[in-house]
Amino acid sequence: MKNEPLVMGIETSCDETGVGIVRGHELLADAIASSVDEHARFGGVVPEVASRAHLEAMVPTVQRALDDAGVTLADLDGIAVTAGPGLAGALMVGVGAAKAYSIATGVPVYGVNHLSAHIAVDTLENGPIPEPAIGLLVSGGHSTIMMVEDLAGKVTQLGASIDDAAGEAFDKVARLLGLPFPGGPYIDRAAKDGDRAFVEFPRGLSAAKDQEKHRYDFSFSGLKTAVARWIEARRADGEDVPVGDVAAAFQEAVCDVLTRKAILAAKEHGVETILLGGGVAANSRLRALATERAQAAGLTLRYPRPKLCTDNGAMVAALGSHLVAAGVAPSQIDFPANSSMDVEVVSLANAL
Amino acid sequence: MRVLALDTSTSAVQAALVDLDDDELFLTSFRREIDSRGHVEKLGPFIEACLAEAGWAAKDVDAVVSGVGPGPFTGLRVGMVTAAAFADGAGIPVYGVCSLDGIGGNTRGRALVATDARRKEVYWAVYEDGVREGEPQVGRPEDLPETGADYAIGEGAAKYAGELAVPAETEPVYPDLVKLVELAAPRLLALAPSEQLTPLYLRRPDAQPAKGPAVRPASGK
Ligand SMILES: [Zn+2]
User: Fold this and answer.
1) Is residue B39 in a domain?
2) What range defines the domain where residue B106 resides?
3) 3-state secondary structure of A27
4) Do A46 and B206 touch (CB under 8 A)?
5) Higher per-residue pLDDT: A26 or B218
6) What does the angle CA A254 – CA A259 – CA A264 come to, to the nearest 5 degrees?
7) Residue B3 and residue B90: Cα distance in Å, rounded?
8) Window A:49-108, CB contacts with B under 8 Å
9) A160, B217: Cβ pair inside 8 Å?
């Protein structure tokens, strides 16, 4: 289908330099350069280290994506770039690059929202997204329930974490258990043989009193503290910490509250489709529990393969392709990088 | 030869188109604004404005020259990634020049060039009749070694005139884009291979992991 939009997407909001190329809903290239190893010893992403790596990787990663896709810059119908939210200095490398490629080639540039891009990436695997849909976005930077009425322009936030992102809680608990950074995959693996009911860790904002103000919001900082206290007490008693069991019980607490609230949101808004996205959406227990509960509730659950859940350029390209196909205006060349970009701003079109 | 020159190593966001004809240089168009937080918003529009004023299309540009610092990292990177991506997009070479040379290259006598490195420090180098001695350094203005300079010049010299051991020009001076192109002229004229631009950071990154989620919590809307 040659007439579908060919779009390159650039993603530099955190520690992955991602460049993806998409034609319509077809993924042609997903090149990525990660600085994750450089951050591992700090137990978290160091912004300046990430920004330095982005600058170094930017042009080579674009070239690799173009080669993989077998297209040239001149063939493109659009260049999409994450304008926010994310780490300010990191975002600026991608935005600066996207603008320069646009000026040099005459291809229009679209500054887009990272969160909507996490939703859009699902089109590459499962085709067009039925609207409205509920998006459950879970990663090291966000834990958000989104209402997607129109992926080209009408996306709202129903709820989000009021403190730590779910992925952060995974990193912190992994550290407590002596597991490497980033914690998600290691907790997932350790939890495989663990007992999910070993300890009943707290489910944040799930009490009746929280149902009004924080109906669809999350809180993971109390959970993290509870795990830390439990481990401390156990060690104080001179006992070993059963890593698999603690990992499984912690993971269960996170996945329970995430899926419960997402399904509640879908039901209460009369929405039939739930989309999972973000790095934590690669978690096997989250997928399993969401599948189970969606089925029981008669809802359709969609999620892409793990590699597309984490930050990448393909997701930005997928959203860009959707915007071009929908006839959304490109961004003006003076658009900013916005580290706290509102979820409702899908793309920075002229009107915004 | 038509050259796009960029420098964002100081609080000046700068773009210029320079025509290089053998050893003659003409400043065709130029945009500059002092805005230490405006690099990513302003540089793209400045390039477009320079092209429009010159009546050139992007494909008329033959090469890109970029200041590579030293300078505050975030702004510096915007200029450098812009230079690298423009060159890649246009299929033309890009060359890096030390940004301090864009100031020091125009000095006579013995000059201390100092730009603002933030955190009460300056990036500095000493120039003898326009030629730099040694590598650029970073340090507190009051702690600089004896340089033998007759005067100090640059944004950092103006800001820390009271702390420097030599008299400082109080009018801030920014890297001169025509000078940067002149310094790259041998490479430009020889059609030297394109360069991988590496910033002169001079400082190691602060190894503090990012705090908290990068997005704000629920707006309740
Ligand atoms: Zn993300």
Assistant:
1) yes
2) 101-159
3) strand
4) yes
5) A26
6) 135
7) 12
8) 49, 51-52, 54-56, 58-59, 62-63, 73, 85-89, 92-93, 95-106
9) yes
